[in-house]
Specification:
It is a single chain. By secondary structure, this protein is of the alpha/beta class. It has 14 helices and 9 strands. The longest helix has 19 residues, at about 30-45. It starts with a helix and ends in a 10-residue tail after the last strand. The protein binds S-adenosyl-L-homocysteine (SAH).
Length: about 350
C-alpha cells in the first residue's frame, strides 16, 4: 500500500484498481503515511503557509432539490434570506480590513439572482477590491452568464462535480438534475479562464469505494485548480436525514490522495470536516490541505445557510476569529498566508 502512495506521488496517477485498493483497504498506518507524504508535498510547494478565503453566503434560496442539502427547495421549514449588494460589499470590506484577499460568494441557485444582478455585483466588488481575488460558487448557470461574470472580473469558480459515477450522482439528485450538464458547466468554466474548483462529499448515502475511485479518476483527468472534499453530514430536514455522517478518516485519506495527484492544487480543509471533528481543520492541513475558508457572512444569517446540521460558523471558522485560527495553525507549525493565493503551476 505504501508503494502505491509513493507511486502516486511520483507519477501523479494510479490505475483504477489501485485507487480502489487504497480506498477499500487503507488502515490507519497507510492513511498516516499518505498524510505524511501529502503534507511534505504541500510544504514543498507552499511552505508552512495556509491561504484564507472569506466566504460570504449570499443567498439561501435554491431552485434545486439535491437530496442531501438543507437548502433544497422542498425544505419548507427553512427561513430563506438573500443579501443585498450593500450587505455583501460591507462583509467584504470587513474581511479586507482583517486581511482577506479572496472573497468567495456562494449560494443556492437563486432564480432572483439574475445574470445581470450578479454581473453588477462582481463589477462593483472588482472596482472596490482591485487587489483581491473574486470567487463565485452559484451553481449551474448558462455559458453566457459565466462569460459575463468572468468579464466583469470574477477570477475563480467553485462547482463541485459531486459524483463522477452516474448512478451515484443519480442517487443523490432528483431526476431533473443532470450530471452531464454539471460536467459541461465545469468545462465551460475552464474554457472561460476561471480557476476552476471541483470536488465531492465523502460518505454520501449509497456512495461506494468504487464511486470514490471514479471521483479520483475524474480529478486526475480534469485537473481542477481547486478541489473541495468534505464528509457528508446529515441535515435534519432532508430525505437523507437518517444517513450517518461520512468517515473523517476516509475524508482525510481522499484529501491526501488528491494532494499527491495534484501537487499545486488549492485544497481547503473544509468547514464540514471542521464541523465533524474538533480538530478537523488541523487534521486536514496535516493531510495536505493548504486553504481555509472562514465565514464572512453577517452573523444573523449564518444559521440560515443550513446545508447540513451543526455547521461551524464561529471561532476559527469565522472571519472575526482569525486570531484563533492563527493560534491553531501555529500550534501545528503553520501560519496564515495573506496573499491572494492564485493557482500556480510553476511553483
Ligand atoms: N449551489 C452551489 C453551492 C452549493 S453548497 C453549487 O451547486 O455549487 C457547496 C457544497 O456543499 C456542495 O457542492 C456540496 O458538495 C456541499 N454540501 C451540500 N450539502 C451537504 C451535506 N449535507 N453534507 C456535506 N456537504 C454538503
Amino acid at each position: 500500500m505504501k508503494a502505491l502512495i509513493d507511486k502516486l506521488r511520483r507519477d501523479g496517477r494510479l490505475r483504477p484498481a489501485e485507487y480502489l485498493r487504497l480506498i477499500e483497504l487503507a488502515d490507519p498506518s497507510v492513511s498516516e503515511y499518505a498524510a505524511r507524504t501529502a503534507r511534505a508535498v504541500a510544504r514543498e510547494r507552499f511552505g508552512g503557509g495556509v491561504f484564507i478565503r472569506g466566504l460570504v453566503e449570499i443567498t439561501s434560496f435554491c431552485r434545486n432539490d439535491c437530496l442531501y442539502c438543507g437548502l433544497r427547495r422542498s425544505n419548507t421549514a427553512l427561513v430563506r434570506y438573500r443579501l443585498g449588494e450593500e450587505q455583501i460589499a460591507a462583509a467584504c470590506r470587513a474581511g479586507h480590513a482583517a486581511g482577506f484577499r479572496t472573497f468567495v460568494l456562494q449560494g443556492g441557485e437563486d432564480p432572483a439572482l439574475e445574470d445581470g444582478r450578479v454581473e453588477r455585483l462582481v463589477r462593483r466588488l472588482r472596482a472596490e477590491f482591485p487587489d483581491s481575488a473574486l470567487t463565485l460558487s452559484l451553481g449551474e448557470r448558462s455559458r453566457d452568464a459565466y462569460r459575463r461574470w468572468r468579464e466583469a472580473g470574477a477570477d475563480r469558480y467553485l462547482l463541485r462535480h459531486e459524483a463522477a459515477d452516474a448512478a451515484c450522482y443519480a442517487r443523490l439528485h432528483p431526476a431533473d438534475m443532470s450530471q452531464q450538464r454539471r460536467m459541461a458547466c465545469l468545462s465551460t468554466l475552464r474554457e472561460l479562464g476561471y480557476q476552476t474548483g471541483a470536488g465531492m462529499m465523502v460518505g454520501a448515502p449509497g456512495q461506494t469505494a468504487d464511486d470514490l475511485a471514479a471521483d479520483l479518476r475524474f480529478l486526475e483527468r480534469f485537473r481542477p485548480e481547486m478541489v473541495g472534499i468534505g464528509p457528508y453530514l446529515p441535515q435534519r430536514q432532508t430525505p437523507l436525514a437518517d444517513s450517518p455522517p461520512g468517515s473523517a478518516d476516509r475524508t482525510l485519506l481522499l484529501l491526501s490522495l488528491v494532494r499527491l495527484m495534484l501537487p499545486d492544487a488549492l485544497i481547503p480543509a473544509t468547514t464540514a470536516l471542521a464541523s465533524l471533528l474538533a480538530d478537523g481543520r488541523e487534521r486536514g492541513i496535516l493531510a495536505g490541505a493548504n486553504v481555509v475558508m472562514p465565514n464572512l457572512s453577517p452573523p444573523d444569517v449564518r444559521e440560515q445557510y443550513a446545508i447540513y446540521d451543526h455547521k461551524l460558523a464561529s471561532g476559527a471558522e469565522a472571519a472575526d476569529g482569525l486570531r484563533e485560527l492563527a493560534g491553531r495553525l501555529d500550534a501545528i507549525g503553520y501560519r496564515i498566508d495573506y496573499a491572494r493565493g492564485d493557482f500556480r503551476a510553476d511553483l
